[in-house]
């Protein structure tokens, strides 16, 4: 029997009603951003107020020794860069990368401890002057990341970060061995796993890895050389709505629909976006909406990520999110079970400009000229767990070019760039920049005082772990 009540009219199939292909997003906005970036590059300039210590006091010779040490380890560093790239490992699984990096440190005659901070793929090594006195001398931490992304591999170029951090640490060790009074102080080299998908640095900080450090530095690959770029704080929220199940046809009035609450919450989050500052982000999915359509769903849940440019605005956004989630529960007559940060949050990066100026000067010495903050639109901002460290102590997280301009992070194209000749050069140049900044910080008392003064003026140390309790 033909079920079509109008047999003379053809019935369209679902496939016929569906567009032949997914509409591809237009490139107009990216084109506008590119033009905006080009304009900013043409007018950008650094206002350098931090001046290096007197080059006549043998300091230029020390920098020459650092450059020579990096050149002497060029083959080793490039080989490690490619080895880690060819063996990508995701968060907390970076056993190969950790082993290769710690072996390189051990082979240089330096003790290295792993695991540390309760993390199997974290490590720590220490280099200090013979006269080191914690009451008089400073400590700086140099960081290496080395985790990869699922499916993409090193689409964020952490293999470059690993090689640069290692190169800086070993170059300073070589320099100190050659000139025992090159600096007075201590350098901690930390292997920090799980920047992607988690917040390894926050876990290490909670375990005390940075307690004795006075500053922390690292470098991240990018599609342009820039001394500072916006990095957003990020929090994760999971909400489960609990209602009452009932037969969806005969007794729907006896139920309380958890999916209704999830749908209302999802719509409420979408409506909230209009009132958000331009730096804020909300990403959400309904990851459980019930099991079968003939039952009123008893449970439903959302998984939400939020981001913001500043720590106070991230906290304010958190409160507004909770209001929306509770409001949806009230409308649907269900309970809301809200949990934040099943893995640690990441905080916005507070870049220390005084320390960052020394990075710029060091990079200019080797032919690079990093652009200042604001050159790249904050619209392109992502997140990093280095933010958690930068709110505990002064730090910098500059970016160094390895890919053609406009190449997006977390893409196959960026992963390919992370094993290119440009990536090799960036790892070596990054190692030099980090080593010189570390040397500056340990030897220049006026610089160190200015670094700390800027940090205190920006708000001083933040109790990151308990920041969102209020």
Describe, in plain words, how this protein is organized in 3D.
The protein has about 475 residues and is an alpha/beta fold. The protein has two domains: about 60-230 and about 350-465, Aminopeptidase; about 235-340, Alpha-Beta Plaits (2-Layer Sandwich), CATH 3.30.70. Helix content is about 40%, strand content about 15%. The chain has helices spanning about 15, 30-45, 60-70, 75-85, 95-105, 160-180, 200-205, 260-270, 310-330, 355-365, 385-390, 410-415, 420-445, 445-455; strands spanning about 110-115, 125-130, 140-145, 185-190, 215, 220, 235-240, 280-290, 300-310, 335-340, 395, 400. The strands form three sheets. It has a six-stranded mixed beta sheet, covered by helices on one side. It has a four-stranded antiparallel beta sheet with strand order 8-9-7-10, with helices on one face. It has a two-stranded parallel sheet with strand order 6-12. The protein is elongated. The N and C termini lie far apart (about 65 Å). About 45% of the residues are buried. Mean pLDDT is about 95; it is low at about 1-10.
